[in-house]
Amino acid sequence: MFGLDPSYAIGFDPVRAQIRARLVGLWTQDMVDRYFADLGIAIAQQAKRTPAFGLLIDGREFAVQPAAVNERFRTVAAGLPPVGEGPLKAIAIVAGTMLNKLQARRTFEAYIAIFRDIDRAMDWIDAEIAGARPVVEPA
After folding, report:
1. In this predicted model, what pLDDT tens digit does every residue of 69-108 receive, in sequence order?
2. Residue 49 CA neighbour count, 13 Å, CB half
3. Half-sphere exposure (Cβ direction) of 132: Cα atoms closer than 13 Å
4. How far apart are CA 41 and CA 49, in angstroms?
5. Rounded to a whole number, what is the distance in angstroms from the first to the last CA of the chain?
6. Please, is 103 exposed, middle or buried when counting C-beta atoms within 10 Å of its C-beta (0-12, 13-18, 19+)?
7. SS in 3 state form for the chain?
8. Which pLDDT tens digit goes with each residue over 7-49?
9. Gap between the Cα atoms of 116 and 93, Å rounded
10. b or e along 28-61 (b: 16 or more beta carbons within 10 Å of the residue's beta carbon)?
């Protein structure tokens, strides 16, 4: 597990080859920076160990965020490694509400799939890693 902040936890599921991040509550811009620093460490470590993996972000307990926090997410997320070009093959977000899902869609790039169901998100990542290119749940 990475991160000492109670607002998030980051771990790895070796069976499904997925980094799992769980986000909780209302955040500040500083929390976004800490989360992405820890997420970057997790991605770099897995890239050394695993030839292909996905990232599942569980936001079912994540609050609708203020505009400044969303903008910080957008800015910092732009620094993530390109999806599909290296070992990071897919990113899926599980949103707790339709409003969270819409906010995530506006905040992140199109290559990130957004779901309301965690099992569908995990299955989608599995298929992406396998190269099956599944149909993405509409936003």
Report:
1. 999 998 998 887 778 888 999 999 999 999 998 888 888 7
2. 13
3. 10
4. 13
5. 30
6. buried
7. CECCCCCEEEEEECCCCEEEEEEEECCCHHHHHHHHHHHHHHHHHHHHHCCCEEEEEEEEEECCCCHHHHHHHHHHHCCCCCCCCCCEEEEEEEECCHHHHHHHHHHCCCCEEEECCHHHHHHHHHHHHHCCCCCCCCC
8. 999 999 999 999 999 999 999 999 999 999 999 999 999 999 9
9. 8
10. eeebbebbbebbeebbeebeeebebbbbbbbbee
Enter the tokens of residue 11: 């771990």
Q: CA–CA separation, 110 vs 34, rounded Å?
A: 24
Q: Residue 67 corresponds to which tokens in the numbers above?
A: 């505009």
Residue 98 identity (one-letter amino acid): M
